[in-house]
Amino acid sequence: MSSSVSTDDLGEELVSVCRTAIGDELRSITYFTADDHEQLYLRDDLERDADIDRFVANERLGFTSQQTYGNSELGDYEFTIRVFEWGYVTRTIVGEHGVYVTTDPLNMNEFHEVATAIRTVLEETIPDGSS
Prior knowledge:
Elements: H1 7-22, E1 26-32, E2 37-42, H2 53-59, H3 61-69, E3 80-84, E4 87-94, E5 97-103, H4 108-125
Antiparallel strand pairs: 1-2, 1-5, 3-4, 4-5
Helix pairs in contact: 1-4
Pfam families: DUF7522
């Protein structure tokens, strides 16, 4: 992964805050930019051969969504939740950097907690939050 920050340090920090916010219901964590991605965490009971490229391609659409919803009466974009039969995908984007996590079912407060934690890590770790 090409990045101006240490992927190891960023990855460790993201895993830590996500595990703290979500606990055992956390399934996976993937960091992505427009050009690259890395799965940072995958829970032990899940298959390692999943094709995450499709997920990453879809979550990258969030970079455009940020611009679409910018300056709306709704306020600033915070995070996106996708609901599935057996779990959720939650995406958080700061500038040109994004993270999505997959989880077992959670309550709304837990989604907000993990998105806030991810946003904080990205803003503090990546210069200007947008490089």
